Amino acid sequence: MNDDPARGAAASQASRRRQAPAALPTAAIPPAAIPTPAGPTESGPAPTAPTPAKAAGAPAAGAAAGRPGRRRRPLVLTLAGFAVLAYVLDQLTKWWVSSTMTDGQITQVLPPVLSWHYIRNSGAAFSIGENVTWLFTIVMAAVAIGIVVQARKLGSVWWSVAMGMLLGGALGNLTDRLFREPSFGMGHVVDFIALPNFAIFNVADSSVVGSVILICILTLKGIPFGGKVPPADASPVSPAGAESTND
To answer: In terms of pTM, does the model score above 0.85?
Structure first.
């Protein structure tokens, strides 16, 4: 009677051992199944999520690409301002002379240095080439168009001033060529500024000559037409920042 319970308990324990799964040794587990902590590996650092600053860098880089155009906008406005100034002064003085004086009239202003001498010139500046009026009309039109086309490449304030003076002077005399007598494209330019032993000229001629002198100076000084436009993302480095970089 006493042996039956003992035999039953032994049989129950043996049954549990058969049902329990055997533990696998660590060496039998494949390496891919063992989790590893995130961090740098032999092939390189672990990938990280983009920070907000890096995420914002993409639109900032796109905006920086358009900054050179905005940097040149003041230069184009400078060119336009000097061109308008030269053109308006030229046309106003010509209108005043042709309205108050007769052809060939001389009025002393600062004798014997300066006087007004009203003439109509069929040639170029300082009465050069009076027999080829149509040629100068074409040249002045080409100069004006060329300046307008190249204006977007400006990178220097002084080049903007020079191009503005040249454009204003060319347009001033071109207006006379196109709309004054005797015919369209063959009009005579109004000249009235007279100096001793010098050709008679006008404000447009003075603007053109001044621009040529300025262009020669800029060329001799080695200042390029495009100027030295700094990169849009360039920022000055402080001495402290430079020292920390060297360290």
So the answer is: no
